[in-house]
Amino acid sequence: MKRTNTYIPNVTADTLMLQENDEDPLEDWEESVSEMFEWVGMAALGSQRLSAGDRCDPYISVYAPPDPSQVGDLTVIRWTGFITSEFLSQVVETILSPNVASPSFVSVTAHAVPTSPVTYIPDDPLKAHPSLRAPHVDAEDTISLVCMREEGAAGQAGCCWLLAESIGRWDKRRG
Q1: What are the pLDDT digits (tens) for 91-118?
Q2: 173 vs 33, 119, 132, 167, CA distance in Å?
Q3: What is the pLDDT of residues 3-17, one digit of tens each?
């Protein structure tokens, strides 16, 4: 789905990394990261609140895109089924490629099947073991990755990223 005239937040390395020079660094960082992930969720849902022409009644919604934002084009791709780690690696490699005009950032959000006993199948099962969980209808397993290209020393492209994960009480990793 391609949307035009959409507010897109200006995501920088400062947005993704905790800055120690602020007076309240952790609180400010948590607020900016929460706003960014809220925007990612709204974009994934196709929310009209992100449209530059949206004039919603404040009794219906008080949402405002993160500040600063610019108006641009947004592409949302939805996928149902398994996504391979190779596909996700190609997304990151595309962002890092100097031959491609990369977007300001890319986000991948995945919702796992709550009744599955594992969250993922590793490429090499002998090296990595997936976390087990009790298959349950109320289980929760969502990850959201925000990744951006960052120019390093000597023109080398690097990657700055942030991963948020939501797990439920049925997951072995909790607590």
Answers
A1: 778 877 777 776 778 888 888 777 766 6
A2: 22, 11, 8, 8
A3: 889 999 988 887 788
Separation in Å, CA 159 to CA 69, 77, 96, 114, 127 = 21, 21, 7, 31, 25
> Which amino acid, one-letter code, is at 18?
L
Tracing tokens 């709204």 back to the chain, one arrives at 42
Instruction: Please report the beta strands in the chain, taking only residues with DSSP state E, as ranges in sequence order.
Output: 2-9, 69-75, 106-111, 141-151, 157-167
């990850």: which residue's tokens?
Answer: 143
**111 to 37, 106, 116: CA distances (angstroms):** 14, 17, 12
pTM above 0.85, yes or no: no
For residue 43, CA distances in Å to 46, 51, 85, 163 come to 5, 10, 23, 17
